[in-house]
Amino acid sequence: MDYSVIIGSIGVSLLLLAFFLNLFKLLKQDSKTYILMNIFGAAMSCYASFLIDYIPFVILEGTWSVVALAGLFFVLRKKTK
To answer: Residue 46 in contact with residue 58, Cβ under 8 Å?
Structure first.
C-alpha cells in the first residue's frame, strides 16, 4: 500500500471517528479529544492530499486543521477563565 494512502486513511478515519462519537453523544464538540482528533485527522488528510498533488483537498483539509486549532485555543482559553 502506498504511503499517501496509509496517511490519508488514518486521517480520514480519525475525522470519521470523531464525527461518529459526536453524533452519538459520546464526545462533546468542545472536548479537547474531539478537537485534537479533528486537528490531526485533517492535517494527515491534508498531507496525503499534498503527496498526491490534489490541491482542492489540500486547501479543504488545511483550512479544517487551522479552524480546529483555533477552536482548541478558544476552548483552552474559555476553561482558564
So the answer is: yes
Separation CA 52–CA 34 (nearest Å):
27
Supply the range of the domain harboring residue 42. 3-80
Long-range CB pairs of 2-5 (<8 Å, 24+ gap) are: 3/51, 4/48, 4/51, 4/52, 5/48
| Residue pLDDT, tens place only, 12-38 | 999 999 999 999 999 999 999 999 999
Q: State how many domains the chain has.
A: 1
Give burial (CB, 10 Å; 0-12/13-18/19+) of 75: middle
pTM: 0.93
Cell of 8: 490519508
The span from the CA of 71 to the CA of 28, in Å, is: 13
Q: Are 52 and 4 within 8 A, CB to CB?
A: yes
